[in-house]
Design brief:
With about 160 residues, the protein is α+β, with helices and mostly antiparallel strands. It has 5 helices and 6 strands; from the N terminus they run H-H-E-E-H-E-E-E-E-H-H. The protein has a 6-stranded mixed beta sheet with strand order 2-1-6-5-4-3, sandwiched between helices. The longest helix has 22 residues, at about 140-160. It is globular and about 55 Å long.
Amino acid sequence: ALFEHFYALMNERDPRHIPTIFTEDIEFQDDAWPETMKGYAEVERFFTALWRAVPDLRFELVEGPYLAEDGRCAAARVRIDGTMTGSADPPGFAPTDTRLTTEFGGFYELEGERIKRERVIVNMNEVGIQMGAVPAPGSRGERLGVAIQHLTARRMRKRVKA
């Protein structure tokens, strides 16, 4: 019930719910964010940026939660879906007006009825392709990226030998 409540609150896209969901000393690591977040202010900054980029973002519990025997840890598979009508900042990607859909694995440490630690593992390559930031497999953009990587790798090898 805690996770259904958690994601129902997240779907309201209201940062005032953060203290209801997380402990004050929350430590939150998400592959979609450049650093580990600590405390309400940093978590609020993350979700505000996420909701600005994808204002209709929806979370759906797909599988789980799977609870540890002591009830203090849990894991779940979650689907997110929404339209990228705003910029994604950081890093500064422009809106695409396209749907973004992916699943992530969430790993949680609980303290009472709130989350003390959260780790979200998401395939950012898949998200990057949907956002137009990463070329699709087999595309001309991917072939160009591989060629650039080969040039960069050659320079890196020369630096290591020097």
